Amino acid sequence: MFTLQVGSIFTIILVLAVVIVVAAMLIWVERRLLSFWQERLGPNRVGWFGLLQVVADMVKIFNKEDWIPRFADRFSFVLAPAIIMTVVLLSFAVIPFAPNIGVVDSNVGVLFVLAMASLGAYSVMLGGLSSDNKYALLGSLRCAAQMVSYEVFMGISLLGVVALSGSFNLRVIVEAQADGWYVIPQFVGFVIFLIAGIAESHRLPFDLPEAEGEIAAGYHAEYGGIKFGMFFVAEYVGLVLVSSLITVLFFGGWLGPAFLPPIVWFSAKAFTFIAFFILLRAAIPRPRYDQLMNFGWLFLLPVSLVNLLVTGAIILSTQ
Amino acid sequence: MFTLIKDSLLTQVRTLWLVFKKLFTKADTVEYPDVQPYMFPRWRGRIILSRDPDGEERCVACNLCAVVCPVDCIALQKAEKDDGRWYPEFFRINFSRCVMCGFCEEACPTNAIQLTPDFEMAEYVRQDMVWEKENLLINGTGKYHDYNFYRVSGMQIDGKDKGEALNEAAPVDVRSLLP
User: Fold this and answer.
1) I need a labelling partner for B144 at 20 to 30 A (CA). Which of A54, A273, B26, B171 fits?
2) Rounded to whole angstroms, what are the CA distances from A75 to A138, A139, A258, B150?
3) Where is pLDDT greater, at A97 or B70?
4) Structural domain contains residue B27
5) DSSP class of residue B27?
6) Is the pLDDT of residue A10 over 90?
7) What pLDDT score was predicted for residue A95?
């Protein structure tokens, strides 16, 4: 019953619970880290070092009125936050946390993650459209264009890893890195995936869909209470997802010296990238929207294609 | 190509590094309720009414503070004691209006009304922001320890006639000036 193995009920519940709790705690982690980088202290009063701040925030957000604007399209307005939450949580099904921890051992893990990321675009599009608000519409327009275009480079940058390991299975990809992490042969792919991952989870500096200063929270401008909370937590789950993917694909997943258990190595690597994403938020200002699209199509696309071609050529020549 | 990479990529990396170094600097935040800030003696905060060195009320109910107050938050009524001294029958400051400008302190001829470095005056009920004389009056001299209006002014009260104040000449006898 309580055995840790891939696909057992206990493991599935454990993964779900840990992912949601970690994502919620990231709200506190992000506020604290950001404030340290801005020479502040951040929330440190509720509980031990402010750890209960998340509980306080959640109690507040759950107690809010579940308000749907009269001019909104009710069905899709309610559906939108549910889609993004479902989609990001489903993506975790294929993530290999450790040799014995995971939900599914899928042969198309990489494709599944990319497909789920594409479905996430529906959520923000529906959310913005159904809100019937010009800022929400602008935000969802931006988000749809950004996600659709950055998905292209995200997929292409992964193909180098897939070619090297010869599999779409994320567990096989991790085990193939026993001799050396893919970040070394696939450094260009790693950088492109990192950038595309930020754009995909629309975190700062690529948070143009919800840029507060320009379009007032963007696609979730009309949302409040628990529905806003779902968008909010889904963003952090997405952050964990992108960090886990980078860990799995380029930094050897659970692999590491044997004095620590595999799950600890995985968590340490993933948290390093989470902290890096928060550092990006603290340091880099957001680009203009046309700069973002130009950078994607005119720079990242050619570079990722060249990276794929060179990787393929080297693999062919060494066979 | 190199300048493109240098301008677009390396500057970003440098920014990241500079911001990351901030992790090891001390925060500027003062954790206020736990760490009290130093309040300067002339800070313009809560208003008090002081007493002279003899323990009498300094306020002579001249109304100058009420007149000069830009938000009209001071109200008082003059009354007179048996010995001829004036005093406020009531003295009321509405702190929900007060902007702590300190004009009342500057206008006061007797140094009675003074501003203090206390600023923690939050209340749950708005009416509690209206302070009466018994709330305002303190048992000390405030910032001016030796000043006593009746000892330096020509005002006549019981036990002190005109000309008996400090640095004051006797009143001129108009009849002695006759030719």
Assistant:
1) B171
2) 20, 20, 51, 81
3) B70
4) no
5) P
6) no
7) 86
Partner-chain residue, chosen from A38, A39, A283, that has the shortest CB–CB distance to B16: A283
Q: How many CA atoms lie within 13 A of B12 on its CB side?
A: 13
Residues of A at the B interface (Cβ-Cβ below 8 Å)? Answer: 35-41, 279-280, 282-284
By the CB < 8 Å criterion, does B12 face chain A?
yes
Q: What is the pLDDT of residue B173?
A: 79
What mean pLDDT is predicted for residues A36-59?
84
The tokens for A260 are: 């620590």
Residue A162: partners with Cβ closer than 8 Å, 6 or more residues away: A110, A168, A173
ipTM of the prediction: 0.73
- The reply to whether B151 falls in a domain is yes
Q: What are the pLDDT digits (tens) for A49-82? A: 888 888 888 888 888 888 788 888 888 888 888 8
Range of the domain at B105: 47-155
Instruction: Find the range with the poorest average confidence among A35-44, A75-84, A221-230.
Output: A221-230
Q: What is the mean pLDDT of residues B92-100?
A: 92
Distance of alpha carbon B164 from alpha carbon B102, whole angstroms: 32
Query: HSE (CB half, 13 Å, CA atoms) of A197?
Result: 27
Quote the minimal CA–CA distance from A303 to chain B in Å. Answer: 13
A32 by Cβ neighbours in 10 Å (0-12 / 13-18 / 19+) ranks as buried
The answer to whether A139 and A219 are in contact (CB under 8 A) is yes
Report how far Cα A16 is from the mean position of its chain's Cα atoms.
15
Structural domain count of chain B: 1
The answer to whether B25 faces chain A, any CB pair under 8 Å, is: yes
- What is the side-by-side order of every strand in the sheet holding B74-80? B74-80, B86-94, B130-131
- Distance from the B102 Cα atom to the nearest Cα atom in chain A, whole angstroms: 33
Query: What is the rounded distance in angstroms from the CA atom of residue B167 to the CA atom of residue B149?
Result: 13
Q: Does B56 map to a domain?
A: yes
Does residue B124 belong to any structural domain of this protein? yes
Which residues lie below 8 Å from residue A271, measured CB to CB, with a gap of 6+?
Answer: A243
